[in-house]
Structures are given as structure tokens and as C-alpha cells.
Structure prediction request, 74 residues.
Amino acid sequence: MSDPNEPRRGEDLIADATAEIKAMAKEGAAHPSTKPVVVGAAIGAVAGGLLPVVTWPLGLIAGAGFMLYKRLRP
Prediction:
């Protein structure tokens, strides 16, 4: 049984990601998370273009999502 006082990680992750994305949108390139997320998106797009099953938009989203996750939960 889970402790009712313990925060749920899934909800915290979504709230943290929402706050981080809003901050990135507000501050633009000046935000410290923008560059790693953009680089991750570019690497994902290239990987998606090279792989036969995955398309570049899916790779772009996966790369950006992975880097955002790594910024939130190192």
C-alpha cells in the first residue's frame, strides 16, 4: 500500500515538465534547458531519418522528450 503523504512521481513529472516547457517558451534560448532539448530533438530527427521504421518527426519528438526527461530527472 502506498503512503498517502508521499507525492506520486507521475503527477510530479507532468507538473514539472509543464512548468519547464512554459519557462522555456517564455525565456527562449536564454533558458538553460533549451539548448539540450533542441540538440536532443536534432539527434532524434537524424536517427529517425536513418532508421527504416521510424520517421524523422517521431525521432524529433522522442529525442526532445528524452532530453527534457533527463533535465527533469537526472
Summary: The mean pLDDT is 87.
